[in-house]
Amino acid sequence: MGLLDDLSTGWLSLAVFASTYVLAAAIYLCVMALATGRSAVAFKAVSPGLLPPMGLLFGLLVGFLVAQVWSDSARAQQAVDREASALRSVDLLTDAFPDETDSRMRVLIHRHVDQAVTQEWPAMARGKATLSVVPAALDDALQLALALTPRTEGQTTAQREIVASLQAALDARRQRIIVSEFRVTWVTWSGVIFVAALTLLAIAFVQSDNRLAAAIAMGLFASAVASAFILIAAHDRPFTGDAGVRPDVLEQVDPGAP
After folding, report:
1. For residue 105, which of 171, 153, 158 has the smallest C-alpha distance?
2. Which of 100, 137, 200, 219 has the maximal Cβ count within 10 Å?
3. Burial of 243 (0-12, 13-18, 19+ CB in 10 A)
4. What does 171-233 look like in DSSP terms, one character per residue?
């Protein structure tokens, strides 16, 4: 559902509900128009026992998708939190070194956070972020940490922890970029939508002799389908939409922030 990625939750809900109701209405009108004579007898012969397994199949597919997108969102948030925590550790540990080193490291951390917020986040939202571009600020910070000359045992420990924290920040950044590329494929969406449409068709067949009952049953199922699709679509891309992961925690550890 790439066309819906940039919509707010309200507009996304409106678009999904409208599309689902249009599909249900089209199926309803087609079946009712054909439910005459021998076709009506054939439609009514469809066993109501067909509905529970079809509904169960749809529920299982939705359950798997919800688990996937929620897992991706959780992994994205964890990666951002780990990156922010590692950068905060670097900021604190550099206090053990002279002011010049401390100031230089803070500038590099600020530059990295600014680049992540202004450049990488929009790219991740579009699924266009890449690992081929090395974060220059973090690379410079790592080189600065490796070039330090500790004069005390405390500085030696601090240097080792700074290097480890910067490596952790680099790994967390890689993880969030990798997760940003995850999404439900169009093949999966097509399969779930097809099962939903088949279930609506089966409901229309079973209730073809009672148009009001058919409309009510199809309307209820269509509402459930739309709600499930909204839940999945809202979390489809971990860094997109109102439910997407924000860079707030990174901005909180930015030593250059006002």
Report:
1. 158
2. 200
3. middle
4. HHHHHHHHHHT----HHHHHHHHHHHHHHHHHHHHHTTT-HHHHHHHHHHHHHHHHHHHHHHH
For 187-235, the pLDDT digits (tens) are: 999 999 999 999 999 999 999 889 999 999 999 999 999 999 998 988 8
Instruction: Write down the mean pLDDT value for the chain.
Output: 90
Instruction: Return d(Cα 54, Cα 152) in angstroms, integer.
Output: 70
Q: Count H helices and E strands in the chain, helices first.
A: 10, 0
DSSP letters spanning 124-169: HHTT---TTS--HHHHHHHHHHHT----SHHHHHHHHHHHHHHHHH
C-beta atoms surrounding 183 within 10 Å: 20
The distance of Cα 129 from the centroid of its chain, to the nearest Å, equals 15
**Secondary structure (3-state) at 24:** helix
C-alpha 238/C-alpha 231 separation (Å) is 13
* Spatial contact of 128 and 2, defined as CB atoms under 8 Å apart: no
- Side chain identity at residue 208, one-letter code: S
Backbone phi, psi, residue 253, to 5°: -95, 5
Residue with tokens 């990798």: 178
Residue 209 CA to residue 22 CA, distance in Å, equals 21
pLDDT band at 10 (very low <50, low <70, confident <90, very high): confident
Which segment of 106-120, 150-164, 230-244 scores lowest on mean pLDDT? Answer: 230-244
